[in-house]
Amino acid sequence: MSLTLTNPLRPALLAAARSERIERTLSRSRLTRSLVTRFVPGAAEDAVMDAVRKLLADGRAISVDYLGEDISEAAEAETTVNAYLSLLAAYRRLELPATNGARRLEISIKLSALGQSLPGGEELALVNARIICQAAAEAGAWVNVDAEDHTTTDSTLAIVRELRREFPDVATVLQAYLHRTEADCAELSGTGSRIRLCKGAYSEPAEVAFQGKDEVDASYLRCLRVLMQGEGYPMVASHDPQMIAAAQSYAVEAGRGTDDYEIQMLFGIRDAEQTRLVGEGVTVRTYVPFGDDWYGYFMRRLAERPANLIFFLRSLVGRK
Ligand code: FDA
Does a structural domain hold residue 299? Predict the structure, then answer.
C-alpha cells in the first residue's frame, strides 16, 4: 500500500505533533512510552548504545539523533550539546577500526535544537554545531544536519555551508517533497558532498511542496538521479522498495560501487529488509533516535503510515 501524503489522518497527526496539550497528555501515559520503544530504543544513552552495538554487530552503520527540536531557551541548546558530547565519548569507547569507506558512526543533529529559531539563533546554532563537529571529528564520526520545516531550509543550508569550510564532510538532508529540492540537489552534489535524500516528514503548503504521493515519488526519483550522477556521496533515506530499487539501478548506471552510496532507514522500520540489504553488500545506515523528547518524532512516524497508527491503537486497546 502506498499511502504517504494521501493518508487522510496525516494533517491531523502532524498538527498534533506540534500540540503541547496533546504532548502533555500522551507523554504522561506509561502505556504510550512503552509503545514508543518500537521507534526509539530508549531515553538514556546506555539504551541507545546497546542498540548501536547490536546494529554494528549486524553489519550496519548508524546515525544517532538526540531527540529535541524547537527549543525556547538557550539553556536547552546547551543540554543538547552536552548530550552529543557524551554520546561521542561513548562512540570513542567502541574503538572501531578505521575504515577507508563510509564511517560507520554518525550523529544526526537538528539545528532547531541548537538554538536556530531563538533571537540571534543562527549564530548560536552555528557556534553549538561547531562544538559538536569538533568532538565528532575527534571521535572519527560523521555529522549530518537534519532537515526541518521549509521555513528553516535557507538558514540550515547557510549554516551547513559555513560548517563545511572547517569540517568538509558535514552532510545535510534534502526533502524531495519541496519544489526547490531538485535544484538544491544539482547545486549540492559536487565533490566531497554528502547528501541524505528523504521524501520529507512535515506538513507543508502547496506553494512550496508537492502534495500527492505520486508527485513526491516522481520528485524523489528525479533528485536521486541528480545525486547519483553527481560527484558526491548520496544517502538514500527511504523504506520504499521502489526508491531503493531505483537507487541500486541508478548507482550501477552512474558507475558507482556499493561503497559509493548508502541506504538509510529508521530504527524499528523494515528491520529484516535492512539486514537483507547488508547481506547483499549494500551499506545500510540505521537512524537511531534517543532521549526524553520523543513526542514530535513519534507522531511523525504515526502520520507517515496508517499501519503504524493502527499498530499503536491496537496496542492501546489490547492492553487496557
Ligand atoms: P513512504 O512513507 O512513502 O512509504 C513508501 C513505501 O515504503 C510503503 O508503501 C511501504 O511499501 C514501505 N514502507 C514504509 N514504511 C514501512 C514500514 N513501517 N513497514 C513496511 N514497509 C514500509 N524527514 C525530514 O523531513 N527530515 C529529515 O531530516 C529526515 N531524516 C530521515 C532520515 C532517515 C534515515 C529516514 C529513513 C527518513 C528521514 N526522514 C526525514 C523521514 C522521511 O522524510 C519520510 O517521512 C519517511 O522516511 C517516510 O518515507 P519513505 O520514503 O520511507 O516512504
Answer: no
